[in-house]
Design a protein that fits this description.
Eight copies of one chain form a homooctamer. By secondary structure, the first copy, chain A, is an alpha/beta fold. The first copy, chain A, contains eleven helices and nine strands. At the D-F interface, helix 7 of D face helix 3 of F. Chains A, B, C, D, E, F, G, H: InterPro entries: P2CMN_synthase_LarB (IPR039476), PurE_dom (IPR000031).
Chain lengths: ~250, ~250, ~250, ~250, ~250, ~250, ~250, ~250
């Protein structure tokens, strides 16, 4: 239930088209009760202003489709992250407008938040980090931000980064996606004076211990100004970046 | 090596003033040499605008004093974090204007950045988390931000948090400092739609494993929009918060 | 060996019917031998009164069927946990009365303990936690307790929990099933004054480390009154809940 | 916000006394504001009925004294756990009625909850586990329960346990405190059909890894009906035991 | 090359049927050179007196067959541990006398060491531990020892163990195979005064962490006299048991 | 209570010097009841045949003295391991016959078990491993075995080991004490065909992680026939070695 | 772009066949810009002098083929490590000259660096370590070094190693590849006085924890002169060995 | 046992001077006995040519003095690492020529190896890493190498590194000492084509976990050519660097 629908309800109360008792019934159950958890998210969406998101990992293809059907009915934009191609096939049966971002493993419905505002720069260290980087990029875009990408920038190629000083300068927030030793986040944070979000990835082998190595690297960074999210959590990084950009509206 | 110097080199090759072998040697090391990177750093220093900070842990009292003397000579504001009372005694011998924040373990010199801008809300879970919370609060203040505090808000007392909805609403960034199980960061992030910085602390015992428990809790939070810093790293949280607030100037 | 048998032995020594060496041999092994311990076990079986349970994980389909056949012959109710659909197919060949709870992965035979007594409230954090939550719910029901469910209550939707104050109030024991960061157990324990059983789940990814994160969270909870069971151990939680409810009969 | 206030708001919208925009603002923050949550807490305070507890670890002697002074003014019974002898000296300056349990490291003020109800049996494995066992025993007693103790029962001396079958039978809840390998909890849970609370301790060395070994042992117990609390958390075990005993009043 | 073949060589030297140079050639290259690593094992077999063993895990079916063919040519008994049924099919193509122990996952060729000597008692905690227990039992038998088995003796069924006091008394060495919490090794070591070999298994889930839990349990046992081998290492336990039994021949 | 005292009691019953009721009283309470845990150990001593041992770590000096006084009254030999010099001073006040092994940190009372039987060879890798090695050596000697020592044999000095082939050959059991990487146990087990007991030590730094490194090394040894005890557990190694040597009496 | 092509460009500038502006354009973008990441590697190849390498793990067969096609166009030698047989089939479609080393999992194109220089000795502990050892050996050979192999040298067969003293003596660098307990690296480093590179492998089971055990063993080696690379990183070991051999040219 | 001795043995068998049984006994222990291994060691000592080193950690002041006295009697240069000032005081009583490097915690006796050869560059990340860096520098110097230092080069100040291109170019080996996140080693290895030795340090706090973070970072470096030594092991890094420099003499 977005803000427009709520305003519409109140206007109907005022005009008498809706009785107070009917409105009460709607409002009382509004945040969570009736239709199950979908409504909770309505409430959250109302306050948060960003599109609904389904985390698909561990769900069946049917579950993903059913949840998306419900959400699509009440939201302009819906994302489903960690979605497999087969999940998309299932979803597209009943939601023809859904699109699939294969590399980023995201099913997207709707046009995203507009107008766009603020630039998120997504930097990734290696080819294998791309799925996580794309998850961040697509999410950031759908939530109403400009997204720039700087991919395949290993620590061994720092000069590539430096040449993009312009990009580094114009971004509001920088997301650094890196597996293996994850040193890239420290290097980037040493070059700029803006919020850097580190996303360690499970890319690597042996003593990377499924992403523990880059996670610890980013947490221990000697460069200040890095906030770290969970291993492989491209979505979370974009959510934080979006919150950072929108936070300036707070001030009055 | 800027484009002019490169052109000059090639012209010398063409004219024969430089042998091909000498030019080859120059070009082989091309991307990193001379002034290129120093400029970046200079640039960073200019833009950063925040006070110098000394991390005292693992240094002797004399080392802290000597370093502070040098910094005080060229900076309006200097902070020394993780400083013991004896370090402060040593420092105050030669820097009479230095003040000591005992709870936050910070020696502060100078007036801090002015005018102030943007509000950081620092929330802490328990009494034992206060040194870390204060480290964040003092740093945020010295770096030119308004700081509000909401201390001793355990998960068992969520209503305290909710009662402060006004505070939650006006802050630009929220820092949540919590040890033991660290659940507070998730709860706060579930209530607001703004950037939350989680600072796990080593407060606790047994299976807290020196802060590992709240660190994992915050990284795995089901609420989006949390960036995590190192265990006990109050300073780092304030640095990230400051970068977030200042980032809006970036945009043009 | 009870006191009468001991006296008899000594009398035989005195009278010479038993040699000292034979008596020594008997006495050396005194505390553990004869019927002592068997009796305990018998006693335990009598008092336990709960249905037999088979843990299917790591067993073949045939093994599960054979074990269930034996148990069904001597028990009114038998549960088989962590059972796959194919295990159920195999079991239903020879035990037509067996039912399968697909979500909770349990094969159930018999009517369960009656009359029912005491209410167990099972709360779960996310959709992916449902198999574990159902394992707890079905077990609790089969063992003779009323079971209420409150599913999909993330930390971000605490208000849902609060609206169910009535449910929270009437339950004797509350089981909280949560993966990712597992903060829900702390929040629930902060709201009630009754035993809370925390079941961390392996739901999550990255730094959840297969359930380590919610496990540590629950163990370090700042709210008192939480007992934690193994990761994904819905059955164990129900067993503990059942023991808690039945424990009041102990008192005399 | 109760239903009456919501109706009142809508009537004001209808009558025009409240603009739609003002109503919208109110409704947006609906679930958390006013008195709702405070009431819960009040409610909890009323129902809890157990004495206030101060966790002293990490606090200064003065802090402990000041906190206790405040609590003593409004509570009949106050406990301070993990208290050092010097903390007690400080506290006894201004609270002459305070007593110190040296082994259990608890400062106790007041007579405890009366009348007593329900028996907690505290079993410990070794001499070095006594401080944790005593912390549990003293807390259980102060909170209004009978406490029986069975100390120094290693796995190598199981027969001692069996001889106390009477004790095992009359207890409502059994707390098992064990370090090193922590196997005692499994053995006890195998002998009884009542709730067992496992408290791993940091007693041991080498591969005990500060209590990790007994913690894992207890969590993986093949005997059902064990709830585990944090390493060395004797207080938490008693709190859970108390909640279990009091839970039977819930039922109506 | 067993001791008989070596004696035969020396007798031929003595009698002149083999020249010293030919014998030298044989002996000089004896320990490792010629045929590759197979010969090393010959040498080891000579000194160690036990049959050759192939560890199949990580090898292809063909590799297992080829290695066994070589070993069978020079040894009376050969074992292949961690062998799959398909490895056995491959091996039996060229070694018709090979037998397969499916539960213990061992291919055995030859009659084993005779005459038998000394009794190894293999105790296991649960059904799922049987493959490891059988690996130990078959190996112990093939290496020339009597093997008694006591399977499915959980900590919850200690009386079964106690009832078998006779078995416990006659064994020279006891191997305890246990997963989950692994407490059984402590219990057994508390009942007897003879060497106990603990074999933690990866049986379990969640906080068993693939066998870490029982491994730590056994290492921290409060009962003296336990030696621990690697997780799931039934073979290693039998090898140690065999060395213990044979060690008495050392003395003179 | 050793076997002689038990025989004496029975003879008195037979001869009539002790009434059956008096004997009953003695025997009934024998294993554990009356005087606390000291009696349990009497019983254990009876069945196990080895001297009493006190583990001093975590006990006060007074506690050690009191426990030793009780044990000395009923035992020919008593050991106190992990004893500090100050504990010895306290003990020697009331037990003048006690001796202190400073390097091995053991207080010894009595002559030890005689006659001696079987040789234990204790090998240590470095100087810093000596306290653990000596703990093993002194215990083995006190429990009635010959002890040979081969100290400071690092992996870099394997030839020292090989030169002692005679020593390796005559020992019944070999205890290898090694910190840092702990490879010595593998090397020794590769040279002999007898039971090897590995004792990882906490000697080392950095990635030794307090003994985890040598612990894992020994558990994963590619040489068969190694049983591992807890980190720094020299006593446990000697206890296992003693059980191995005594186990041969079992057979009949 | 190798050194020859760069020299050619400069000669064209000198001779006037290329204008300075055209050369500038080439050179300015040289290290990274235009064709994507392939050029970075050109630059690196130029400075490093070794062939291009593709790390195939986590890439699709098509991705591997496309990357190799680009690299083959500009390099004399290209290696693709961690390549599956199906990747090779795909690659060989368009690069007929590519060869596949099945055991070492490497696709190799080109003749390798010549002339050869310096000997790398690759020692491996067990058969299962061969893929990693071969990865090192093939890489070392392709990068222009002589490679000697000494495979299947377990700690139990140290004499094999000693017999190869000649090999040990002539090598410039020794790479030791070992899983399980990894003690071989210590033993080798104890025998020689030259750089030893330890490669722990994930070969093993149970407490090897996917290679953690040999990793810690090698890091804690009591023998000086060992540098350790990541678990299973045969390529990295060869790269380090190659850098060591080439480093002597540095000196002037 | 060399070939002559073996021939002699066989001749004695042939002639009857040695019985077959005696010959068998000799041959059974063949590969390891007499002079073979001692020679290796002798050989190693001769070739090593580097000063004796005492690792002082865990030794008493007296032990250090006694060991140094012995070594000083037979060696031109002796180092004692991890030495405290009080150890130095003790040592200087009897060895007046000993010098103490306070920052590097090394006692040095003698002039070191001369003439010097090959340059080791020691780079450190932060002030707190200096003790480890100095340990490496002093050792490298004493062992006969030129040592250059580049201290306090954090990842945030990469330009400092780049400005020292000349230093990077002339060094034979580079040792990088870094705590916290340890990213410096990756950055350095990305800039040069020569062996880099990474020394993680325990400098840091929280999620650095005593050096685990930089250790994992360095092991997972995406830049090839890094060998890692134990946490804080400056000495080991210098030993490896020295072996690398001296290795070129090997070739003939």
């Amino acid at each position: 239930m977005d803000i427009e629908r709520l305003r519409f309800l109140l206007e109907n109360v005022k005009s008498g088209h809706t009785t107070i008792d009917d409105a009460l019934k709607d409002l009382k159950n509004l945040p969570y009760e009736d239709l199950g958890f979908a409504r909770i998210d309505h409430h959250r969406a109302l306050r948060n202003g960003y599109p609904e998101v389904v985390f698909c990992q561990g769900k069946t293809e049917e579950q993903v489709r059913i949840i998306m059907e419900k959400l699509v009915a009440h939201n302009r934009t819906v994302l489903a992250t960690r979605a497999t191609p087969r999940m998309y096939q299932e979803v597209s049966k009943s939601i023809p407008g859904a699109r699939y971002h294969e590399l980023g493993r995201i099913i997207e419905f709707g046009a995203g938040v507009t107008p766009k505002k603020g630039t998120i720069l997504v930097i990734s260290a290696g080819t294998a980090d791309l799925p996580v980087a794309e998850e961040a990029a697509i999410t950031g875009n759908a939530w109403g931000h400009f997204v720039e990408k700087l991919y395949d920038v290993g620590v061994a190629g720092i000069h590539r980064l430096l040449d993009k000083q312009q990009l580094l300068n114009t971004a509001r927030v920088i997301i650094v996606v890196a597996g293996m030793e994850g040193a890239l986040a420290s290097v980037v944070a040493g070059l700029v004076d803006k919020p850097v979000i580190g996303v360690p990835t499970s890319v690597g082998y042996g003593a990377s211990f499924l992403g523990l190595a880059p996670l610890l690297t980013m947490l221990n960074s000697c460069a200040a100004g890095i906030g770290v999210v969970n291993i492989d959590n491209g979505f979370g990084a974009a959510a934080l970046a979006s919150a950072i950009i929108r936070s300036e509206e707070t001030e009055s």
